[in-house]
DNA sequence: TTATACGTACAGTTTAAACTGAACAAACTT
DNA sequence: AAGTTTGTTCAGTTTAAACTGTACGTATAA
């Protein structure tokens, strides 16, 4: 019984570290893992209790996880409290959120840097900085190619 | 002149955001970009001046960048101060550091979770948690496959 | 309707990270 | 050798993030 708990605690601790790799804060990662290891949807009060944090804190954590599409709210008849649970097929969810974030960023930055390049070309013919701008654009292009090659 | 500077500042600002995507802190990313846009190696004092931060702060920043293999120290005869510069082919450097970090983490966590699984099997036959452990292992396996498929 | 239970917003506090200046140590200069 | 110059360590401070408790609004229950 307590032995099972130590195993669960270890799992929470270790798996959270992998979740953190997806650019998720340590506490949010821990919250996610707790929810994931619980086979039933959980209420804010339950999560607050397990996390040892205030309900407000858990509330904001859940909010960010929902925004990332990693947690969803579910309803169960007869239960008034909000219930939250993790989605199935973790891998797709995480990779989708992660790659989407990268692709989105690269797209925006490519445009931004192109715009700066325009300005530089107009005013500043033949300056050294132009080499760097071209390198930056190439850098983004390579990243883009790398992440687009990947499939879920 | 000042116009060129605003363009440079914009470049610093924008490119830093991409560097941050590689899990590098905003100030370290800015430091790297400043060094990258400077066509000459820089001293601590110069970087301190451009960053508007203390020399101590720049020193620690450079240290972490060197540890990540993104910056190296160079020597120039007649110059006493330490000189630092960014490496060529950014893309390879960053991807190598980044993918290496992922692969390393996944390897370690796979082993750790397997060890926990052993313990769980010994003591806790047929418990629900075992399903989750298998899912976790599969999760890591998929990530590993995804990152190994990638080439620089 | 009144009363109770729940989620969220907000101000204030705690905790952790980033940063600084002074002091030290090692290397160079004279 | 004594005197500078430079990088680094460390204690203390500033700044930003995480967290908490109270208070408010909304929904359910009586």
As for the CATH topology of the largest domain in chain A, it is Arc Repressor Mutant, subunit A
Order of H and E elements of chain A = HHHHEEHH
> If helices are DSSP runs of H or I spanning 4 or more residues, what is the number of helices of chain A?
6
What spatial form of chain A do the alpha-carbon principal axes imply?
A: elongated
The percentage of residues in β strands of chain A lies in 5-15%
The CATH class of the largest domain in chain A is Mainly Alpha
CATH homologous superfamily placement of the largest domain in chain A: Winged helix-like DNA-binding domain superfamily/Winged helix DNA-binding domain
Structural category of chain A is mainly alpha
- As residue ranges, the low-confidence spans of chain A are none
Mean pLDDT of chain A: 92
Domain count of chain A: 2
Sheet with the most strands, sense and barrel status of chain A:
2 strands, antiparallel
Structure summary, number of beta strands of chain A? 2
Helix content of chain A: over 70%
Widest sheet, order of strands of chain A? 1-2
Named CATH architecture of the largest domain in chain A:
Orthogonal Bundle
Q: Span from first to last CA of chain A? A: 38 Å
Name the assembly state.
homodimer
């Amino acid at each position: 019984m307590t032995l099972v708990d130590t195993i669960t605690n270890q799992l929470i601790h270790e798996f959270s570290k992998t979740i953190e790799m997806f650019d998720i804060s340590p506490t949010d990662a821990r919250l996610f893992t707790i929810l994931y290891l619980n086979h039933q949807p959980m209420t804010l009060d339950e999560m607050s209790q397990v996390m040892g944090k205030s309900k407000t804190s858990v509330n904001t954590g859940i909010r960010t996880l929902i925004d990332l599409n990693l947690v969803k709210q579910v309803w169960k008849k007869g239960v008034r409290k909000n219930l939250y649970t993790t989605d199935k097929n973790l891998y797709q969810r995480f990779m989708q959120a992660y790659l989407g974030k990268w692709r989105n960023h690269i797209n925006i930055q490519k445009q931004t840097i192109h715009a700066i390049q325009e300005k530089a070309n107009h005013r500043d013919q033949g300056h050294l900085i132009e080499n760097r701008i071209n390198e930056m654009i190439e850098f983004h292009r390579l990243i883009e190619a790398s992440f687009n090659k990947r499939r879920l």
